């Protein structure tokens, strides 16, 4: 039975299990480079990390897509790698290439990493949450987030994103005990971080496991499902009514197992998942979120109209949040986003 009330934002009603005639909508990376107002503020900030750690600017960036489009939810502007940085790992961004960290690939390097995250380093992010919360319209929900332990660990071990997550796989194959210690630290830091976001005002949190699909079934259970369950349990121990969304990107037919074992309230769907399977085997368990292809949104035109209708037809008879299957692409025309919103809300 749904615990939602009529006073809740539509996004939270959907998370609570209500089927709505018009699904709530937001987009992953909705605050980003496709917006001219974002690009202007990003240039003023000087660097991506400076933007993340400036509460005034980060709050403004979080609010920009709400003002322009009226999405049903805002998502905190930050990055999943602030957690390893708060654990003491050096982090920087290379323009045009992405994040870099000093790799943690042996016991010596792990010894240089703190066992708990430094709350002072994350304090500016939590201040951003407070600022956004006071500025959001009452009908707009607020989402916080963290990276899942497996995905964060792949960056910590390799020092950068990799096409196959090979360095992390090599480490858990050769020294699973060491890899488990890395996972353990991410789990504990993520619990503290998400709880701090909830206490500062977010209405729900999402756990992004961008590389979940790179794991086989047994490794998926050990390095994706089990650590995520620990985060869910840890957050709920402090905030029993917290709403938690999982996004095990690429996990496909392993998602029903993920949902059952982790205890998440809802789950995100990538673009290429079979929609009939997702409706019958996943949406029957929890509300779902997704799964429009960002490439289709970028292209626009009749294909966008058809795909919006197909997504709504697949999931509209159950609890559902309209979203993309991954983040919006930087060169997506604003007019296409406007058309998407009009089609979803028609």
- End-to-end separation in angstroms reads 28 Å
Average of pLDDT: 96
Oligomer: single chain
Task: Please state how the strands of the largest beta sheet are arranged side by side.
Answer: 1-4-5-6-7-8-9
The tally of helices reads 16
Sheet with the most strands, sense and barrel status: 7 strands, parallel
Keywords for this structure?
single chain, 346 residues, alpha/beta, 7-stranded parallel beta sheet, two-stranded antiparallel ribbon, 16 helices, 51% helix
Give a structural overview.
The chain has 16 helices and nine strands. With 346 residues, the chain is α/β, with parallel strands linked by helices. Strands 1-4-5-6-7-8-9 form a seven-stranded parallel sheet. A two-stranded antiparallel ribbon has the order 2-3. Helix 13 (275-282) links the parallel strand 7 and strand 8. The longest helix is centred in the middle third of the chain and has 25 residues, at 176-200. The mean pLDDT is 96.
Put the structure in a nutshell.
The protein has helices at 10-15, 36-45, 48-52, 55-69, 82-86, 107-111, 119-135, 149-158, 166-174, 176-200, 217-238, 255-262, 275-282, 294-299, 301-315, 334-345, and strands at 73-75, 91-94, 98-101, 141-147, 204-209, 244-248, 266-268, 288-292, 320-324. The mean pLDDT is 96.
Set out the fold topology:
Blueprint: H1 10-15, H2 36-45, H3 48-52, H4 55-69, E1 73-75, H5 82-86, E2 91-94, E3 98-101, H6 107-111, H7 119-135, E4 141-147, H8 149-158, H9 166-174, H10 176-200, E5 204-209, H11 217-238, E6 244-248, H12 255-262, E7 266-268, H13 275-282, E8 288-292, H14 294-299, H15 301-315, E9 320-324, H16 334-345
Parallel strand pairs: 1-4, 4-5, 5-6, 6-7, 7-8, 8-9
Antiparallel strand pairs: 2-3
């Amino acid at each position: 039975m749904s615990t939602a009330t009529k006073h809740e934002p539509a996004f939270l009603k959907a998370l609570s299990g209500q089927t709505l005639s018009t699904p709530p909508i937001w987009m992953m990376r909705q605050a980003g480079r496709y917006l001219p107002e974002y690009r202007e503020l990003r240039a003023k900030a000087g660097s991506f990390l400076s933007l993340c750690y400036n509460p005034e600017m980060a709050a403004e960036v979080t609010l920009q897509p709400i003002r322009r489009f009226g999405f049903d939810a805002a998502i905190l502007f930050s990055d999943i790698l602030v957690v390893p940085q708060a654990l003491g790992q050096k982090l920087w961004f290379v323009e045009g290439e992405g994040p870099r960290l000093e790799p943690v690939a042996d016991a010596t390097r792990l010894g240089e990493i703190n066992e708990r995250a430094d709350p002072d380093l994350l304090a500016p992010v939590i201040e951003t949450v407070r600022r956004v919360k006071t500025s959001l319209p009452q009908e707009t929900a607020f989402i916080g987030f963290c990276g899942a332990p497996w995905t964060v660990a792949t960056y910590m071990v390799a020092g950068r994103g990799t096409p196959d997550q090979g360095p992390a796989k090599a480490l858990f194959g050769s020294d699973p005990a060491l890899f488990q210690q890395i996972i353990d630290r991410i789990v504990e830091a993520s619990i503290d971080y998400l709880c701090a976001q909830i206490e500062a005002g977010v209405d729900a949190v999402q756990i992004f496991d961008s590389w979940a699909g790179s794991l086989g079934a047994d490794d998926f259970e050990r390095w994706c499902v089990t650590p995520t369950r620990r985060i869910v349990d840890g957050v709920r121990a402090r905030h029993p009514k917290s709403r938690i969304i999982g996004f095990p990107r690429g996990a496909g037919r392993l998602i029903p197992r993920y949902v059952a074992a982790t205890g998440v309230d809802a789950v995100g769907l990538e673009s290429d998942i079979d929609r009939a399977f997702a409706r019958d085997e996943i949406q029957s368990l929890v509300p779902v979120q997704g799964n429009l292809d960002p490439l289709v949104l970028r292209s626009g035109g009749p294909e966008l109209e058809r795909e919006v209708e197909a997504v709504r037809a697949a999931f509209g008879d159950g609890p559902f949040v309209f979203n993309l299957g991954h983040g919006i692409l930087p060169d997506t025309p604003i007019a296409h986003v406007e058309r998407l919103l009009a089609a979803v809300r028609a």
